[in-house]
Amino acid sequence: MRRKQIILLVASTAIFFEALDIAILNLAIPLMQKQFQLDAETVQWVQTVYVLFYGGFLVIGGKLCDTLGRKNIFLTGAGLFLCTSLGAGLSNSFIMLTAFRALQGLAAAMVMPSALSIITNTFTVPEERNRSISIFSSFAAIGSGCGLALGGIVATYLGWQWIFFINVPVISLALILAYKYIDKDVLNKHRQFPDIISSILLTVVIVLISYVVHNLPGVSKNYQRLLACTVVIVVAMYIFKRRERTRQQPLIDFSLFRSTGTITGNGITILLGAFFLSYLFLLSLVLQQNMHFSAAHAGLLLFPFSVLSFLVSRYVVPALFKKLTVLQTGILGMCLMLSGALLLMTAILFGHPMSLILLSIACVTGSGMSVCYPSLTALAIRDIPDAQQGIAAGVCTTSYFIGAGLGLSLLALGMQLVTATTTTVNHVSVLLVGCFALPGVIWLLLVRKRIQS
What we know:
Elements: H1 2-26, H2 29-36, H3 40-43, H4 45-68, H5 70-90, H6 94-122, H7 126-158, H8 162-165, H9 167-181, H10 196-214, H11 219-246, H12 260-290, H13 295-323, H14 326-349, H15 354-381, H16 389-418, H17 427-447
């Protein structure tokens, strides 16, 4: 039993640091922006490349667990995460930092599915497995909460580099325990090796699309580079589609995604990813640059709402699923997100009253995200056969992170086109973020008659 508890703790470290590394960066971004003398549109790439590489390689990470072994992939991914965390902290240029963040996203895409696979194969009794997965999932809320608080405090008093350095000792210990306690892999030699080339092509496409979108305002100066990127995107998409049609085991079996519920769940998950990370990005700028909070003060302000998010996930969401349908719960969650954006926009228009700021945070990070994510995931996989729900859940998670990366790039494009400043956030910037949530609400309302439960 003690061995199983250690394995659960080690595997849960994966989702903790995945959530931590996304959340912790938000309050450190203004400090990076100041050190490297960047505008708000450029500095967001340090977050964008992480989520795009994470989302782009997540499916292949799960498939590698089946061919190379869950323990091998966990150790490799965790080792890479440790090295890239160290490299990011030691970076002396923004290009170097961004490169290490991209590799960190790749590492997270390896660690995440292997950690979940380790848990499901260690705890085989249904009651034990459900309890372990619940504990594993709760570490995400804890990681987000710690990230929002620690990001500001650590960056303020130790420097932004330490938001990466703090990963090193904990992951080192996790690697030692994983090597010692996790069972050795039993490999299936007859299983077909996953299509890594298709995964690389998919990631190249979504990263280059983000780059092109981000740089559209300067198309007259960079038209040759953007044209070259567009050609690469078209060629890579053609090769990807051709490979997916001809392989016996494609990277993503799109024939699974034909029902209204599956299409709706994945489509709105993309919008959710675009909204949530863009909202956190703007919120950190509002608190630190508009309202002149220190990063530490901003972190402490956000921490209670992460605790609230955990409580909503643990107690409120299960009660909602008993009272409402999955679709109704999703509508409620997206309405909370839209309300949060409207409240933040109103707060900026009326001189940043703290009551409106707090209500906005409560709607988005305190409750909306906790309601949206499980309901949309449930909607996305409800019509998928049981034997293929794992890959369907992986595609849904991939949709979220691809949406997050593209959303940040679209936000940067909008800020360059319609806002007059790159140092502070105005109401138009928040309105752009609200435009990610509004289509989600409308979409869910339009399909409610076709999805009865």
